[in-house]
Specification:
By secondary structure, the protein is an alpha+beta fold. About 30% of the residues lie in helices and about 25% in strands. It contains 7 helices and 11 strands. A hairpin with a 2-residue loop joins strand 6 and strand 7. Helix 1 packs across helix 3 and helix 2 runs antiparallel to helix 3.
């Protein structure tokens, strides 16, 4: 008479699993991992005194106790798996200096994985425009300074002039991002401390109209030989020469 087929082995009990790994009834995930590593080293068949069957029992005991820890579906993270560090979010904005928006030129963009991409941009970009680079679509954001701002299509810069000209008016030479401009300063403009150079702002591009250049006038300190606009022009020239 044939023997009945062997029945499958019953799952290890919690008490037997704790006894096998040497942990008490209350254990943390870290304590369980340490106990498992020590027991697995002793039972590993490649070590002297190790035994393959016992190694499997140790592994089964670990998984039995692991399933009782808090976590999704009662499972704790695998102690041998280290998840990759989260990547930085992919930037979606391209910040530009108003000088690049005015004249066009090169800009750098750093991706989420740390790569630096060099872009060649046309003149006339505005905040809200989009450009594509390396399969990415970036939204342009113009970031000005107190000396140079962009408002819509218009560029505003600060220019220092001798106090006498603010009071009396006269001919002044002002360095701007589009070159030196000779401006006739009226007494009224000197009082308002504002001059508009029509059509000298951001260039027309697509749906954008040609902008204007506004000079905000400030009295030059005694002995001052330079203006904020001239400093901006030197910075622009140095960037192109680099």
């Amino acid at each position: 008479m044939a023997s009945p087929p062997p029945t499958s082995q019953a799952p290890i009990t919690l008490k037997a699993a704790r006894d096998l790994l040497g942990v008490g009834p209350f254990y943390s995930a870290a304590e369980l991992r340490r106990a498992f590593r020590e027991a697995a080293k002793r039972a590993h068949p490649d070590r002297d005194g190790g035994d393959e069957a016992r190694f499997h029992e140790v592994t089964e005991a670990y998984h039995r106790l692991q399933a009782t820890l808090p976590g999704p579906r009662g499972a704790a993270p695998d102690p041998f798996f280290q998840p990759p560090a989260p990547r930085s979010p992919e930037p979606t904005e391209l910040t530009l200096d108003p000088i690049v928006a005015m004249n066009g030129g090169e800009a750098l963009h750093r991706t989420g994985d740390g790569r630096r991409l060099r872009l060649t941009l046309p003149a006339g970009l505005r905040s809200g425009d989009t450009v594509r680079v390396d399969g990415r679509e970036l939204t342009v954001r113009l970031v000005g300074t107190p000396e140079m701002l962009v408002r819509g299509d218009d560029v505003w810069i600060t220019a220092t002039v001798p106090p006498r000209l603010l009071d009396e008016g006269g001919r002044i030479a002002v360095d701007t991002p589009v070159g030196r401009r000779i401006v006739w300063l009226t007494k009224k403009a000197g009082e308002r401390k504002l001059v508009r150079l029509a059509g000298q702002g951001l260039p027309a591009r697509g749906r954008h109209a040609q902008g204007h250049l506004f000079l905000r006038l400030a009295a030059a300190p005694a002995g001052a030989a330079d203006s904020a606009a001239r400093t901006l022009l030197r910075r622009f020239a140095a960037a192109w020469a680099a």
